[in-house]
Design a protein that fits this description.
Elements lengths: L1 E10 L2 E11 L4 E5 L6 H7 L8 E6 L2 E2 L3 H10 E4 L11 H11 L5 H14 L15 H13 L5 E5 L7 H16 L3 E5 L3 H7 L2 E6 L2 E6 L1 H6 L4 H10 L1
Parallel strand pairs: 3-8, 3-9, 6-7, 7-8
Antiparallel strand pairs: 1-2, 1-4, 4-5, 9-10
Helix pairs in contact: 3-4, 3-5, 4-5, 5-6
The structure holds adenosine-5'-diphosphate and magnesium ion.
Keywords: ATP-binding, Nucleotide-binding, Transport
InterPro entries: AAA+_ATPase, ABC_ATPase_HisP-typ, ABC_transporter-like_ATP-bd, ABC_transporter-like_CS, MetN_ABC_transporter-like, P-loop_NTPase
Protein name: Amino acid ABC transporter ATP-binding protein
Length: 239
């Protein structure tokens, strides 16, 4: 579903990704961990060309993202959820969910609304369709953001620290939605330090440091039997 081959990214003189090779199969839930500034967000953003790699290849669903004609198609297939929810504040929750369906997918309004309501139900917010984002809690807003990404029927979902801006009591409601997505077979790449989620839901964990994948394996391998010294040090700080 996703293939990165020798992906490098440079900002000025700063080489942030130093040759990332990664294959992600359909249905995998890949968790990325690593210190702040190690390149986790940049890797994720290269997967939908929010950042264009300096060199290397990114292929999603058999489409090379450097092909400008394919890029718009690929972007609709890759949903992204950020740390900050980025909902449109002047639109109701339902309007947030129907906008891209109508504008990008050219879905008829009634159909977009029906789909929007189904997705709100799925993330446990059916009763919030007419509410405005600022009236919702952080956890609710993040669930709306997930539903909004799902409205485009993505084949892949990318999550960049989706719970790190939330109050602790709201973390689980967002992780539960993500877990149910994973159980439905969604291909997911998740940057998170939520080890419980990684262990329970992750099929594979990658440790990135200074722009390189230093270790990867099953959650048990990475968390319980880390081999790389920098990974051991990182885990000793966060666990
Ligand atoms: P992480 O998500 O692991 O914290 P990032 O991928 O956000 O790391 O950033 C990796 C490095 O790239 C950092 O040193 C950051 O300052 C730098 N960086 C990220 N985005 C940009 C940008 N748009 N311009 C310049 N430097 C950037
Ligand atoms: Mg980041």
């Amino acid at each position: 579903m996703i293939k990165l081959e020798n992906v490098r990214k440079r900002f000025g003189k700063n080489e942030v990704l130093k040759g990332i090779d990664l294959h992600i199969e359909k249905g995998e839930v890949v968790v990325i961990i690593g210190p702040s500034g190690s390149g986790k967000s940049t890797v994720l953003r290269c997967m939908n060309y929010l950042e264009e790699p300096t060199s290397g290849t990114v292929i999603v669903d058999n489409m090379d993202l450097s092909d400008k004609d394919k890029l718009n198609t690929v972007r609709t297939e890759v949903g992204m959820v950020f740390q900050r929810f980025n909902l449109f504040p002047h639109m109701t929750v339902l309007e947030n969910l129907t906008l891209a369906q109508e504008k990008v997918r050219k879905t008829a309004k009634a159909e977009a609304q029906e789909r929007g309501r189904k997705l709100l139900d799925r993330v446990g917010l059916a009763e919030k369709a007419e509410a405005y984002p600022q009236s919702l809690s952080g956890g609710q807003q993040q669930r709306v953001a997930i539903a909004r990404a799902l409205a485009m029927t993505p084949k892949v979902m990318l999550f960049d620290e989706p719970t790190s801006a939330l109050d602790p009591e709201m973390v689980h409601e967002v992780l539960d939605v993500m877990k149910s997505l994973a159980q439905d077979g969604m291909t997911m790449v998740v940057v998170t330090h939520e080890m419980g989620f990684a262990k329970e839901v992750g099929t594979r964990v990658l440790f990135i440091d200074e722009g390189q994948i230093l270790e990867e394996g099953t959650p048990t391998e990475v968390f319980d039997h880390p081999k790389n010294e920098r990974l051991q040090l990182f885990l000793s700080k966060i666990l």
